[in-house]
Structures are given as C-alpha cells and as structure tokens.
Amino acid sequence: MFLKGKTAVITGSTSGIGLAYARALAAEGAAVVINGFGDADAIEAARAELASVSGAGALYDAADMTKPEEIGAMIDGAARELGGVDILINNAGIQHVAPIDEFPAEKMEAIVAINMTSAWYAMQAAVPHMKAKGWGRIISTASAHSLVASPNKSAYVMAKHGLVGLTKTVALETATHGITVNCISPGYVWTPLVEAQIPDTMKARGLTRDQVMNDVLLAAQPTKAFVTPEQVAALALFLCGDAAKAITGANLSVDGGWTAM
Ligand code: NAD
User: Fold this and answer.
1) How many domains does the chain have?
2) Which residue numbers are catalytic?
3) Pick from 29, 103, 186, 208: most CB atoms within 10 A?
4) What pLDDT is recorded for position 127?
C-alpha cells in the first residue's frame, strides 16, 4: 500500500484504461477521484468498489473535459475533500476517424479539447497543490500516435503530439519541486474507444470488421496482440513510486513494438 495518504485524480476513468489506472492506484491505498461519462449505476458501482479497495475514499466527479471551469473545480474539490492532489492522470480521450477533407471541424475541436487542452487546464490547477507539498506525479495517456501518424486520424495525432510537448514543458518547470511529468503511450488497447472506431474505419477504408482488426489495428503491432489496460496501469504505478523519481519529461511506450518499426 505505498500510496496510502496520496490522492489521485484520473480523468476519463469510468471505463477502459482510466478505470484500470484507478483500480491500480486504489489497490495501493490511494484515495481516488474518478471522472467521465456513462451509466450512473455502473459508475457508482465502480466508485464503491474503489472506496472499499483503497480504504481511503473514492469520489466521482462528472466534470466535462471540454469545460475549463469544471476541470478546475474538480481539482480543487479533490484537494478540499480528500486532502490534496498528489497524482494527476490525464486520460480522457475520444477518437474520430475520417480523411481531413471529410473531417467535421466540430469533431476536431472536441478531440483537441478533450485529449489535449483539458490536460493543460488540469495541470494548471493541480501543480500549485503539488508544489505546496513538494511532491507530485502527473501522467498523461498519450498514444503511439504521439510518435507516429496513421491516415484518417489528423485531429487525434495532432492532439497527442501536443500532449507530449505540454508534458516536456511542465516537466522542466516543476523539476525542482519533487514533481514528475510523463506520458505513457500505448499501442492498441482493447477498450470501448477502439471498438467504437471499427465501423468508421470499415467505412473510411472499405474493409470488413475482421480486416480492420487484423490488417489495420494489429498490423501495426508486431506482437499481434492488444495491449491490456492493466499493463498500461502497471507502468503508471511504477511512475508513482520512488524508483521513478528521476523519470520526468519522458514519453514511455507500451505498444507491443509498434513504434520500433
Ligand atoms: P474509453 O472510451 O474506454 O475511455 C475514455 C474515457 O474518457 C471514458 O471514461 C469517457 O467517459 C471519458 N470521456 C470522454 N469524453 C469526456 C469528456 N468530455 N469529459 C470527461 N470524460 C470524458 O477509452 P480508452 O481506450 O480507455 O482511452 C483512454 C485514453 O487512452 C484516451 O486518451 C485514449 O486516446 C488513450 N489511448 C487509447 C488507446 C487504445 O487503444 N484504447 C491507445 C492509445 C491511447
């Protein structure tokens, strides 16, 4: 239970990778704030499970990552209710797949706001709480698409590359305050986000579901296997520990070899 006494805010944690982060941190005794959308009963069940596992409290905050004032209120609320914001994981994300000349501008704006700009606002609100304690961990879920591009993902690739630049900058600004700031860049992880883009990719590329799974998604991943949310969360847990205190400004891949190609 090495995170006893710490509080973590994890954006976009009602499903997929975010929920796996919350479970991993709670299992080490952290109080957690989960966030995101979804079925109210399922969210409450997840919150109750996290509270009982951590023994240190778990809250749900419905802040919309497109709304800066809601992001700030979530961070300050966590500090007020749970004693601080020691760990911030920027994880909320959405995807849309289309060639640039058919890409709806409002989808692009939403992807940039949720996948990138929300992390800027959350870091701006969280860093003062971390500086006050002389300790902090900021982790953002970037993507293999923060390092390489794929067709039809202009907004996502743009946002994820930006997230890496934000990470490097805030890492430099906080380096003498006991705060580390890093990105984790997964390859394809089997979550609702990946499942949801299969129909659009089928349409954009004129492929069957099996062809998208094997020839588009797993084609990029030399291991020919999806990464699991738990494998991503295990790296986040490592980054929260003392052994990782010299790792800052980094973008760490968990991508089955994708970006080695
Ligand atoms: P997911 O769809 O399971 O989870 C996304 C989470 O973000 C959900 O909790 C959802 O409610 C939340 N969310 C969406 N819009 C929001 C908003 N406006 N405000 C607050 N919360 C919002 O997807 P996932 O695959 O677990 O993705 C999590 C992160 O991992 C994303 O940033 C994604 O880009 C990144 N990622 C995923 C993969 C993958 O293959 N699944 C690969 C690389 C990176």
Assistant:
1) 1
2) 156
3) 186
4) 98
